[in-house]
Every structure is written in C-alpha cells, then in structure tokens.
Amino acid sequence: MSIRNQPRNNTSGHGREHLEITDNIDARPEIRPGGNGKGEDAEIKASVYGSRLYENSSSSDKEDQESPDDKNKNGTRSETAAQRPDGSVTTKHAGVSVRTITIAGQIEGHIMLPQGTKATRYELIIPQIVEIEEDPDTDALLLIINTVGGDVEAGLALSELIAGMKKPTASLVLGGGHSIGVPLAVCTDRSFIVPTATMTLHPVRISGLVLGAPQTSVMFTRMQERIVSFVCSHSGLPAERFRELMLSSKEMTTDLGTILDGKQAVGEGLIDSIGGLSDALGYLEERVKSGKGVRSRSKKK
Length: 301
Description:
Layout: E1 2-9, E2 15-24, H1 59-65, E3 81-83, E4 89-93, E5 96-108, E6 119-121, H2 122-134, E7 140-150, H3 152-163, E8 169-177, H4 181-186, E9 190-193, E10 198-201, H5 214-233, H6 239-246, E11 258-261, H7 262-267, E12 273-274, H8 277-290
Parallel strand pairs: 5-6, 5-7, 7-8, 8-9, 9-12
Antiparallel strand pairs: 1-2, 2-7, 3-4, 4-5, 10-11
C-alpha cells in the first residue's frame, strides 16, 4: 500500500495536499512509446477497464466499434456473445446467460490514477453488478481477475457487493490476484485459479508522509483486520494462517508477505479449485440449471 501526495485546489484558489491510500504491488505508471512512424503525433488513447473511454479517437476506431463482425446476417447482435460499451461481455450457452466482468490493472478509488496507467474504475463496475443482479435475462456472473491491487476501500466495496448477490457467481484468477485483489478473488460462490497465476498476501503498506502517532498504527491495524476478516470468512484459509503468511519475512527481500502460485493458493484453502475458463463457465451453468440460485454467505470451514 502506498500513500501519494496529490495537489488539489480548494475554492479559495490555494493548493492543498490530498493523501490517497492504495494497496498494490506496483504503482508505477505504464509508459508506452508513441508515434505512428509518419512524423505525426501519436494518437492519445485513455483506455480504462469498465468504461472504454477513448480520447482523440480516429474515424477508423469509430468504424471498428460498429464493424460487421459484431452483427449477424440479420443485422442484430449475436445471441451467443455480445460485448457491451462498458467492456463486459454476455455469453449464452445451453440457455444460460453469463455476464463476464474483468478486473485488470490497478483498482482505482477516489483519486484518478495517472494517464497511461491501466486501471479498473470501481464506480463504473458497481452499476454493472447491480444490473446483473436485477436483470432477468442474466443468470450468473463471471469475474476474471488480473490485478496488482489498488485502493483498499474500492476493492472491499466491490468484494462486499458481489458477496451480497443472490445469483450464481464465480471468479477466475489469471496472471495475478495480488493485494486487495485477494478479497475480490474469494468473494464469489466459487473461485478458480490457473496454475501459473500468483497471489500476494502482504500487510497494508505505507509510504510517504504520515502522522507519527499511536492512532496511525491503530487505524492501519483495523484496516488490515477488515481485510483478514473478509478473506477468511469467504475462503477456507484460517485467520491465523493468513496473518502468518502476510507477515512472513522469508520470501520478499524488501517487504513482508508471501507469494502463492495457483496450486499453493488452493492448498492453503484460499482458492477453491485449479481451473480455467471452461471450468468456471461449467460451474455457473450447472448452478443455474440445478436451480441453486441462492448462495451461502460464508465459505469458512
């Protein structure tokens, strides 16, 4: 976790500092080379997961959004797979409709991340979750996760919202489900992880200027315990074992914590099963067809 000082102007015009609390393993912005090789300035695109925002889009980009491949012969979108403007996709197989949402990059909270940083904006994911829960044409939710972490409160907010759904849900960890991505991975009815994916368990971290008072330590301890409580109540990982892994000094040279690969995450009881996309979709299809639409609010053993 890091705290970044960002200037913000108040109504009187004087600048002031705002502290943002984040929880990720890599808060550095992603820098890509620009230019199109023709001496012209590179086209600027701000691609944000959950919003699909584009700046200075070319005409070809607009045509791509309505390409013929997106429509069938009758001029309507395919009933098999339809991608929405918000970046999610709805698939339908054997009469079961599943909405897939991706959590990728950093989880953006109350403060916008720097330009060029791939991020998931939680305020754009929340309406999608509400829509899925209330939409009679959507049967289940699949959450695909590849995140370095991010804002603690934003990550917990999304996790709590998904945990409160009645429709069948499943998560699939690809690449990484680090930091505050851990609660998101376990908040669904069943969690899957591919063997090559990793998950980092570490304490809430602080960088930057903080107030050197006992209350500061108490605040961050309580914040960490909220994460421990949620993860352990939605997985088979005991709280004491979680704290042991979180505070381990045996793996990271400059930090505390533990990195688990797919098999280790399942072995610790953090994730339910090793599996891929077909396994997650198969689980949701079985849940819907069996009529088991009401979930258990806790998976703790």
